[in-house]
Automatic annotation (TrEMBL):
The keyword Transmembrane helix applies. It comes from Congregibacter variabilis. The keyword Ribosomal protein does not apply. The chain crosses the membrane at residues 15-38. This is OmpA family protein. It comes from the Bacteria.
Length: 216
């Protein structure tokens, strides 16, 4: 009987062997987690580096834009915020009109050349956006159905004037926002005046020039 019991005990695997296998497994899991963590940290560092490089490039482009438009900026006739060039609607147009005033036309002429150079050097397009306040179109004005149409026509008018002043037509396009994106509350005339505006923003080409076909 004793011999039988001894044989049974001797057949069981030693506890240190089981413990060793367990530790080996745990070490393997730890190594895998460590490798994954290091890979994640490297990828995150790469993404952060790329984001920082893009931020610096965008900041440099904005500085170049400000330098290109230093003259009009110094007169206070335009503003630049986050890379967007703002022009008060009262400078360009009379109320509820899409016909350029003389002051507005003269301003756009001074902008055409520096904008053209900037867009060419940075391979960008210029988006011209029209905005209005929230007041409905006056009933006596038969030219526009609503603020959407008024903002669209104003954006097109500015676009055509810049092209006529020398800005390449393939570098510019128009967009209309009506009263949907105010920059100030429409509670009084001062706020509405700020919302009646035209903005111009350089934007990247959607298709790299190197991949464009000769026929567009």
């Amino acid at each position: 009987m004793k011999e039988f019991l001894d044989d049974g005990l001797n057949d069981a695997p030693p506890i240190w062997a089981i413990f060793g296998d367990l530790m080996t497994g745990l070490v393997g899991v730890f190594v895998l987690i460590l490798i994954w963590t290091l890979g994640f940290q490297l990828e995150l560092a790469k993404d952060l580096e790329q984001a920082e490089a893009e931020r610096e490039r965008e900041q440099a482009r904005r500085q170049l834009l400000e330098q290109a438009l230093a003259g009009p900026l110094s007169t206070g006739r335009i503003t630049i915020s986050d890379g967007r060039i703002g022009i008060s609607g009262s400078v360009l147009f009379a109320l509820n009109s899409d016909r350029l005033q003389d002051e507005g036309r003269e301003l756009l002429v001074t902008l055409a050349d520096p904008l053209g150079v900037f867009l060419e050097e940075n391979d960008q397009l210029l988006m011209i956006s029209g905005f209005t306040d929230d007041l409905p179109i006056q009933s006596g004005n038969l030219n526009f159905a609503d603020n959407w149409e008024l903002s669209a026509q104003r954006a097109l008018t500015v676009t055509r004037e810049l092209v006529a002043a020398g800005l390449p037509a393939d570098r510019v396009f128009a967009a209309a926002f009506g009263d949907q994106q105010p920059v100030a509350p429409n509670r009084d005339e001062s706020g509405r005046a700020l919302n009646r505006r035209v903005e111009m923003a350089p934007v990247p080409r959607t298709i790299p020039s190197s991949t464009r076909s000769p026929n567009g």
